[in-house]
Specification:
The protein starts with a strand and ends in a 7-residue tail after the last helix. Helix 12 packs across helix 14 and helix 16 packs across helix 18. It folds into two domains: 200 residues, Class I glutamine amidotransferase (GATase) domain (Rossmann fold); 252 residues, Aldolase class I (TIM Barrel, Alpha-Beta Barrel), CATH 3.20.20.70. The strands form seven sheets. An eight-stranded mixed β-sheet has the order 4-3-5-6-16-15-14-11. The protein has an eight-stranded parallel barrel with strand order 17-19-20-23-24-29-30-31, surrounded by eight helices. The chain has 18 helices and 31 strands. By secondary structure, the protein is α/β, with parallel strands linked by helices.
Amino acid sequence: METSLFQFSSLSPSSSSSSSSSFLFLRKKQSFRFTNVKHPNNLSVRASSSSGDSVVVTLLDYGAGNVRSVRNAIRHLGFEIKDVHSPQDILNASKLIFPGVGAFAPAMDVLKNTGMAEALCAYIEKDRPFLGICLGLQLLFESSEENGPVTGLGLIPGTVGRFDSSKGFRVPHIGWNALQITKESEILDDIGNHHVYFVHSYRAMPSDENKEWVSSTCNYGDNFIASIRRGNVHAVQFHPEKSGEVGLSVLRRFLYPKSSITKKPDEGKASKLAQRVIACLDVRANDNGDLVVTKGDQYDVRENTNENEVRNLGKPVELAGQYYIDGADEVSFLNITGFRDFPLGDLPMLQVLRHTSENVFVPLTVGGGIRDFTDSTGRHYSSLEVASEYFRSGADKISVGSDAVYAAEEYLRTGVKTGKTSLEQISRVYGNQAVVVSIDPRRVYVKDPEDVQFKTVRVSTLGPNGEQYAWYQCTVSGGREGRPIGAYELAKAVEELGAGEILLNCIDCDGQGKGFDTDLVQLISDAVSIPVIASSGAGSVEHFSEVFTKTNASAALAAGIFHRKEVPIRSVKEHLLKEGIEVRI
């Protein structure tokens, strides 16, 4: 099956601060091109209507972010896809899905400048089958405050505004939250009080003017609109394609509205935002050139044998699929293989992402090598180009490491946001919710906090000479090089530069199985208003409850104990549930 991918040029980044001019798909006077993409035959599983005809879903993909997962979910459910490449394609659609990704203003520019806005309004006003996802919901409203005010399609009364972080809620709203269903919606029939996955900084609020549209709300500081429904028109703020089997049920109900699918008998216990349990896979090439999942001991990934071979804990695609089945809330890939010899399009990690996203319907994060680089042919790639390729291959978030350290150092030195750093460019194009900064600090003990210029913390465990204080020195190059910046200072700086989440590692705890460094996690999670993922050191289920009760971490990540099957993900969640901590089951 051949489809036409709606894609806008070009890949060249801009230093302009205007969000509408900074998007990849709005370059060069809104020019766009159509690229024919051949999909593997085994992905084209046809669904049939009662008349025996093949059922085709029309997808409005305007070229931003990870829409691959929506495509994979639709195909997984047995439907073929037709891509929109003209306004008439919208009007001719029998079922239209609009998975909006990115920022409000550039998306509206695309719709208006290509004639799609008028066609979309006409399609919806005729009560044709429509499903908007995330930004695809927000654009239906009158306006948005995001880089605005910006006028929307105006089909639903109301303004899309930013979450209020002053109330102590972290922005972006990232994670699995509960729905409060307010009216019959059909597509939500099989959710059964389970969590669904949200990732956004802006939301629409219910009001007397739009209450006839609202089918469910979600609480995050305030009750915001989680879904709308009027007739055959549906839209959701959450991501069904990233909400596991529950999310697939939403898509299935939209695609099979009159089917005899029975409601799922089991009921969940979702009541609020869940603490996330994330499985991490460190991926690198072994000495034979094969990509394997490995795990370090304080970042050393080689076995202590005469052969000194790379520790091999399995194949990345297979392990990711198993963790999805086991209940991981996200899967994170860390690419620790050097790739300067590869052209960007041939990176082995891209194939891992593409294959994983075919069957894993929870968020995928990829890190490692998100920076400017030049391959063996002399071709130069910007960090934005590298990130864009990862997004197109199935990543929902990218994790930036060393490059973020250098950017933060320069920002703290000059106090100037240049707009050219990887964090600024990628967050401007894809939103800060898609940008994770991975911090790799090492504990440095001091006798007196006044001895150093960096933020210190009173430690729970004394240093080797009885020191009561420590600061956390950031490192680059896989922990091999210390830098003159602390984890506290780095976290504050990268939040200002556009990071939407922090992955907080600790070299001292890595692979030790003695628990997370709660001193460090508390320091950083209290310093920023974005979500913090605790990493390094988990060895038992109790370590997860400890980090969630002692700190403000939003998620906890582990690798080796999951790979070696020492602590199953299911056991972690059952323990957290018994401790009264909200988790997705």
